[in-house]
Amino acid sequence: MAEALVIIPTYNEIENVERIIRNVFSLQRDFHILIVDDNSPDGTGTKVKELQLEYPEGLFLLEREGKLGLGTAYIAGFKWALERSYAYIFEMDADFSHNPNDLIRLYNACSKGTSQVAIGSRYVTGVNVVNWPMGRVLLSWLASKYVRFITGMDIHDTTAGFICYKREVLEKINLDKIRFVGYAFQIEMKFKAYLLKFKIKEIPVVFTDRTKGNSKMSKGIISEAVFGVITMKLKSLFKRYEI
User: Fold this and answer.
1) DSSP SS3 for 57
2) Using alpha carbons only, how large is the chain's radius of gyration in Å?
3) Would you kindly state where each structural domain of the chain is located, as residue ranges?
4) Domain spanning 4-237: which superfamily?
5) Given this model, what pLDDT does residue 108 score?
6) Distances (CA, A) of 65 to 48, 69, 156, 209, 216
7) pLDDT of 127-169, one tens digit each?
8) Residue 235 — pLDDT band, cuts 50, 70, 90?
9) Which of 97, 143, 154, 237 is at a distance of 20 to 30 A from 51, taking alpha carbons?
10) What whole-number distance in Å separates Cα of residue 9 and Cα of residue 186?
11) 48-78 pLDDT per residue, tens
């Protein structure tokens, strides 16, 4: 059995899911994949089931009843992984904004170094984003700066969603106490790992915006991140924040 599991949440990713699965399985290191699909009406889950016939030992599917949010998808995936013997558990998007080749770099940062969390970072060595309009690049960059300022975390890309966790990190965090369901989930997970004093390392990656399918970003997600971070920090100061 592989010691590393890549969790990929999907909702209407029929244009990307087969290619991302094949790319991960073509890597030199052995990764298993767990697709967490929110009942995609475009047949994403059905395509994964077809591919399971080809990859019966390494490809898994967790089907949910509907679109329940990115954070809950990852939490479901984390719990699934912790019920098994995986030592390294990854978050990765289905749309190729995260380069599958970088999985090995994140893995090495945790397996060969002293880090317990490795982040595929867009901003640790400048701004490494391709195909985003300037307004979105600026919004994302400023959001990470804002979160870093409010929380005190020494992390340049606080909203990154390309991550490797060592098993011990997810075992220590109370996953039932994660509050956020949108992209602020990524901030909250990093903040909890930071409060628990796990060593976090940023690995520079190039983020390339999707060329197929539609983005899931919304104003509600941005609002959750902006206002939720302040609440999260204040609760931690007054010891009301459950890790």
Assistant:
1) coil
2) 17
3) 4-237
4) Spore Coat Polysaccharide Biosynthesis Protein SpsA; Chain A (3.90.550.10)
5) 97
6) 16, 12, 35, 28, 18
7) 898 988 888 888 888 888 899 999 999 999 999 999 999 999 9
8) confident
9) 97
10) 13
11) 999 999 999 999 999 999 999 899 999 999 9
